[in-house]
Amino acid sequence: MRHLTTIEGQLSAQGLKFALVASRFNDIIVDRLIGGALDCLLRHGAARENITLVRVPGAFELPVVCRKIAAKGGYDGIVALGAVIRGATPHFEYIAAEATKGLAQVCLETGVPVGFGLLTTDNVEQAVERAGSKAGNKGADAAASLMETIRVLEQL
Q1: Is 91 designated active site?
Q2: pLDDT tens-digit profile of 62-73?
């Protein structure tokens, strides 16, 4: 272990530009994710003027908008935020899977990291728990993971 080189990212947003891309669908949950992500970035040194919020209709639209932002340039990272809550039809499976695959594809195709803040829950109670109550705030978690990933990429 003495000769092991370790590359790790730091939780520092100083000097970085971020886009938050958030769905309007289930906005009562998503607004709390936005608040968590914004708070996390600001607490770790981001300047408010270096954060842009982009609203999209739903989770399905997250990948295409994130891809456009990444391709256009000007942002060090993107935080994708949304909430897909299971209902009585298979709609949940299709939207959750395609949005997830699409966001992963954005990262791999563009090299711009995307913080994954898309909740996929069985019910509203689980979504509330993950948007700032019992289970923390997954918007803040996505922002923290994004900062760390950006700082790792800078070292590679």
Answers
A1: yes
A2: 999 999 999 999
